[in-house]
UniProtKB/TrEMBL annotation:
Organism: Lactococcus fujiensis JCM 16395
Protein known as: Reductase
InterPro entries noted in UniProt: Flavoprotein-like_sf, FMN_Rdtase-like_dom, NAD(P)H-dep_reductase
Organism taxonomic ancestry: Bacteria, Bacillati, Bacillota, Bacilli, Lactobacillales
Molecular functions (GO terms): FMN binding; oxidoreductase activity
One Gene Ontology cellular component: cytosol
Domain NADPH-dependent FMN reductase-like intervals: 3-142
């Protein structure tokens, strides 16, 4: 059984990402029904990580351990990412900096949301993923605040995103299956 983590990388109050991550999780389960794959949504907000390099409290040390173990438990990932100031959120980048062997030789796909569907954030994350020895899918799903959200806050995705997500899932499952053989 493949285990895929759907990681919500925004902790911003009032974030649009929760609706996007829930949609991604629900659709992924629907589109892969009958396949040997399991999806779990992971919300970065549940992990109170310190800034990398600062002295961690006992509680933060436990959060680091829990984050590491959760991420290590997956065979592949879908990062649900926002774009803040043309890049990935600082909290998500910080969380990724705590990882290395946990994600090595695993597959990664992106569902982004923002003014340009988080395209610049995703491109930045591709470089980070390369450094972490992760393989990224060719296909992304890019949600626009202008067309996939009513009043830029109520999530109403266009129906064509279903096809994009199906393609993304096919690539992610193939890569995750292949990479599992070398870990």
């Amino acid at each position: 059984m493949l285990k895929i983590g759907i990681i919500l990388g925004s902790v911003r109050e009032g974030r649009n990402g929760l609706a996007v991550a829930q949609w991604t999780t629900q659709k992924a389960k629907e589109f892969t029904q009958g396949q040997d794959v399991e999806f779990e949504m992971v919300d970065l907000l549940d992990y109170h990580l310190p800034f990398l390099g600062t002295k961690a409290t006992a509680e933060q040390g436990e959060a680091i351990k829990n984050w590491s173990e959760k991420m290590a438990s997956f065979d592949g990932y879908i990062f649900v990412v926002a774009e803040y100031n043309h890049g990935v959120s600082g909290t998500f980048k910080n969380a990724l900096d705590f990882l290395n062997p946990e994600v090595k030789d695993k597959a990664l796909a992106f569902v982004g949301y923002g003014g340009l569907g988080a395209a610049r954030s995703i491109e930045s994350l591709r470089m980070i993923a390369g450094q972490l020895a992760m393989a990224t899918t060719q296909t992304n799903v890019n949600m626009s605040l202008m067309t996939d959200f009513e009043n830029m806050s109520i999530f109403k995705p266009a129906s064509y995103h279903d096809g994009e997500l199906k393609t993304l899932l096919g690539q992610l499952i193939n890569w995750s299956t292949a990479l599992k053989t070398i870990r």
